[in-house]
């Protein structure tokens, strides 16, 4: 009886440690997602203090996004090769140090360098963290719950950036949006060695450096081309040259991957319909959510004249709905399958976005924004959770980092493309309306309604794609 009791206690302790490990991993992922949006609110303040031009200010965002999006695939493969825990902790440490350096910046060059290191570190920790989650929770039922928490954290990070950015900048100054990362990262680094065992190092195979260079440079060129479209336009030489360079580099990457013995990204992974469908969905979700949070933030501040703090507080119902739905999604996946749950979530997200598109220039939160915000929160929560679950379903342990890097890459590139397309359409609509003599507030509202409708279109297309690609989604047992 004693041995049975001891075994039960040991098993209970192992289960507890696994869920505590998930919390630590989720905190790190929260920082990565949060950092993509929290800095936006602080830009005017830091620009004034550091005497930065508008172009340099936009570079503060781009300097993070470019290395993050460009290095994700390599980061995922490195974690498969050298160990997921090791690469995760390396990424968290680099992220903390770069955040501290950004907070201490006294010049634009210093800040941009720190932001680039933040992005590169995020590219190491994000795929390694998700790979660790999938390894820690091998049981389909537990994995569904774990990814439910993971998806909720990612969604909350997107919504919380505006709120925390406003609070920290108003109370402690712009540097606080960077310093806040340091204590959280330190706690994660202190906890992980006690919660997650050292994982085995992958086979000592040569790394595909030529493929790594080609895909990294290609993704950087894609993001750079799209990030600049709002400023220079779609037909500007800069945009066209970068787009052509991206096409050549990504074509070269595919060519190389078919011919090297140990490819960075074995193209056969896309024979897994779940991986293909999940990544296509996450690409479109990225496009929808990036455009949504950008347009919603500007609409509330420039049209409804909310201050930064009030604009942030209005995100609470959305975040609350997202958290609430996280506990329901695993049951939905078990009942109807991952693909159908994802498709239904995307339709709910689209419904909320369409509702938001009808908001007038004198909207009130209770009458016009609250209902759509709750629908969006429910849709986003379901989409993040089921999309991530789908994209890593059926992947071998040796490719867990690769699959996790793919998910993040799809979302980042989708976000860059979605933001570029939707903001360009919105700008054209605003210019046309103002050219007809429409008042500025009404013109801005008309432009932002197009962003919301475009994001809804991305969501609907995502639902159709998932149902078409994942015809018979597998259910967790």
What does this structure look like?
By secondary structure, the chain is an all-alpha fold. It contains 18 helices and no strands. Helix 2 packs antiparallel against helix 8 (209-227) and helix 17 (400-435) packs antiparallel against helix 18 (440-469).
Could you provide a short overview of the structure?
Helices cover 82% and strands 0% of the residues. With 477 residues, the chain is mostly helical.
Strand content: under 5%
How far is the N terminus from the C terminus?
Answer: 31 Å
Helix-residue proportion: over 70%
The topology string of helices and strands comes to HHHHHHHHHHHHHHHHHH
Shape: globular
- Count of beta strands: 0
- The tally of helices reads 18
Biggest beta sheet attributes: none
What is Rg? 22 Å
Give the low-pLDDT segments.
5-11, 473-477
Calculate the mean pLDDT score and round it: 82
Q: Please identify the structural class as seen in this structure.
A: mainly alpha
């Amino acid at each position: 009886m004693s041995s049975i009791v001891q075994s039960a206690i040991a098993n209970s302790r192992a289960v507890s440690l696994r869920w505590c490990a998930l919390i630590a991993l989720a905190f790190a992922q929260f920082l990565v997602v949060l950092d993509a949006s929290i800095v936006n609110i602080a830009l005017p303040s830091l620009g004034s203090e550091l005497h930065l031009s508008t172009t340099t200010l936009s570079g503060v965002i781009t300097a993070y996004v470019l290395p993050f999006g460009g290095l994700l695939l390599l980061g995922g493969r490195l974690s498969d090769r050298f160990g997921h825990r090791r690469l995760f902790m390396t990424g968290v440490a680099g992220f903390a140090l770069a955040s501290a350096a950004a907070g201490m910046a006294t010049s634009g060059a210093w800040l941009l360098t720190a932001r680039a290191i933040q992005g590169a570190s995020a590219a190491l920790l994000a795929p390694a963290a998700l790979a660790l989650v999938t390894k820690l929770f091998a049981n389909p039922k537990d994995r569904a719950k774990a990814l439910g928490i993971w998806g909720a954290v990612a969604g909350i990070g997107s919504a919380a950036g505006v709120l925390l950015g406003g609070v920290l900048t108003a109370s402690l100054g712009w540097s606080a949006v960077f310093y806040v990362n340091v204590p959280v990262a330190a706690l994660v680094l202190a906890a992980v060695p006690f919660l997650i065992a050292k994982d085995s190092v992958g086979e000592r195979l040569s790394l595909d450096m030529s493929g790594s260079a080609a895909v990294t440079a290609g993704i950087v060129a894609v993001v750079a081309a799209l990030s600049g479209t709002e400023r220079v336009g779609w037909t500007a030489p800069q945009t066209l040259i970068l787009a052509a360079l991206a096409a050549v580099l990504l074509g070269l990457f595919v060519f190389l991957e078919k011919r090297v013995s140990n490819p960075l990204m074995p193209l056969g992974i896309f024979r897994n319909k779940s991986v293909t469908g999940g990544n296509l969905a996450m690409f479109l979700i990225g496009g929808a959510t990036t455009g949504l949070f950008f347009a919603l933030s500007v609409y509330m501040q420039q049209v409804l004249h909310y201050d930064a703090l009030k604009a942030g507080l209005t995100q609470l119902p959305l975040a609350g709905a997202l958290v609430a739905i996280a506990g329901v999604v695993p049951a939905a996946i078990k009942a109807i399958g991952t693909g159908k749950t994802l498709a239904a979530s995307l339709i709910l997200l689209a419904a909320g976005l369409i509702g938001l598109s009808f908001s007038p220039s004198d909207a009130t939160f209770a009458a016009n924004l609250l209902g759509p915000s709750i629908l969006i929160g429910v849709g986003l929560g379901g989409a993040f959770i089921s999309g991530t679950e789908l994209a890593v379903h059926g992947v071998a342990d040796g490719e867990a980092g690769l699959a996790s890097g793919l998910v993040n890459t799809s979302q980042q590139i989708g976000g860059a493309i979605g933001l570029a397309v939707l903001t360009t359409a919105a700008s054209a609509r605003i210019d046309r309306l103002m050219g007809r003599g429409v008042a500025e507030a009404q013109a801005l509202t008309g432009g932002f309604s197009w962003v919301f409708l475009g994001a809804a279109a991305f969501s609907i297309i995502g639902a159709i794609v998932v149902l078409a690609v994942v015809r018979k989604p597998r259910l967790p047992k």
